[in-house]
Fold this sequence. Notes:
With 359 residues, this protein is α/β, with parallel strands linked by helices. The chain has helices at 15-24, 45-48, 62-67, 82-90, 111-124, 133-145, 169-174, 181-188, 204-216, 315-339; strands at 4-9, 28-34, 58-59, 72-75, 94-97, 127-130, 151-162, 223-233, 237-238, 243-244, 249-260, 263-273, 278-279, 287-295, 298-303, 343-345. It has two domains: 4-131 and 324-349, Rossmann fold, CATH 3.40.50.720; 134-303, Dihydrodipicolinate Reductase, domain 2 (2-Layer Sandwich). Helices cover 30% and strands 27% of the residues. A seven-stranded parallel beta sheet has the order 3-2-1-4-5-6-16, with helices on both faces. The protein has a seven-stranded mixed beta sheet with strand order 13-8-11-12-7-14-15. Strands 9-10 form a two-stranded antiparallel sheet. The two termini are 21 Å apart.
Amino acid sequence: MDALRVVQWSTGNVGRQALAAILDHPELALVGLFAFDPEKVGRDAGALCGREPVGITATNDVDALIALAPDCIVYTPAYGDDATVIRFLEAGINVVTTSGYISVPNGPRGRDFYAKIDAAARRGNASLLGTGLNPGYVHLLATVLSLPMREVRSVFFEETAHVGFYNAPEMWKMMGFGLTPEDRAKLVGDQAAAPGTPHSLDGVPYLESCYAVADALGIRVDGWERIEEVAVATEPVKTLWTTYAPGTVAGLRTSWIAQRDGKPVVTSRLTWAMGKSVEPKWDSRHGYHIEIDGDPAMTLDLGLRPGSASNVHDIQSAMDLGMTATACPAVNAVPAVCRAVPGVLTYTDLPIHAARYSR
Length: 359
């Protein structure tokens, strides 16, 4: 079978890991690469992800990449752009993305948001899947974890992470990190980020993942809630891009809760800290914990660590493990998405798929 022709869209923290995964995948062939950074335009794709040259150079020419008519675009910008995604789909190009788009029936964004995207996909006879590590793999894992259970009453999953090595200063600024709690509250109001923030950063994809689990388990959701706590630096907290001053926000804990009859049925909690010198002190080891209450109750702890193929030299490069684990659910889904029926997809629309063996 011929390899599927793939364009990688973005070369940032997640994008360069997706790029490497595409190059390694036996069923995929890289045919194009989009870069937002003008300094990366013209550079070889292999060099941009620490590999030998592969003969594909990065471009910022959107029209030229669409004209390649690839089978799929792996779309991994931090900020998803609906108009761009719709353009891909209308051109008949399948899309897998880590930029939100966790579509679910009767989800929190309302029917109209995904209706226009789904209509574009059907016009182009293409499909779109929103995925990643969390949201994405983790909420799928929570769903699969329920298989041995007779009854499910509630689901809880949490991400804990030291995020001081996640070099995305504009994202953290939009979320109010580095401000006093009072100034942050003025900036974000009752939202998760500054007004006008791209929807992939408003936090709602985490709530959508709760709806996706509920839908897969047959739980009717009729409401939701967001609960937020901040942690402040107790001394200067140094990160890759700045130093957070004492008394400013350097940690955030957010719970997205899907409810039924006013009670929580599926909860996604994020616990992020820029370093250890924050108060309150939360567990900031990078990992995931899943709890399902029912009969019997189930729990699962998931960690990320270097494997035999990992090239990890220090804690900064160790953060690449999380970026790899975010990118690969999208890359590994490409064959299944290319074979799927047109429209906006969830994991329940796809067959079981997996990574591929590599020597």
